[in-house]
Amino acid sequence: MDGLRIGDFKNVRLKVVKVAESIPPEVQTKLMKLQQLQEQLSAIRAQRQSVELELREVSRVLDEIKELPEEEEVYESIGHILVKRKKDDVQKKLDERREILELRLKTLTKQEANIATQIEDLRRKIAGMLAKTRKLS
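Above: the chain sequence. Below: its structure as tokens.
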């Protein structure tokens, strides 16, 4: 059989441990920071996507409401029930929600760009530190 044997995994594990031990503590700290930033970036992207989805939905509903006559009443979902409301009241509420979502989206987009920049800077620093470590060994 040409596959890997259990003994092969022990050797790989030992090599990984040796490589981890050979990485200077300062680099290990920066690698942990990099991982934290990547997790933050992932969370912010998920939040941004959620806000974008809700913003599209609110905008779509507003477009539909604007087509209705002024005196028309609409139903607003509150929890598990629908409540009859005046069109203008619902439209004002949705306009406010859209403004909040747009502001939130702008904030998340800035945070995303800021963290992405931090990640790239940190990657460059780590690469430079590892290159110095290799030259010294």
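The chain has a mean pLDDT of 88.
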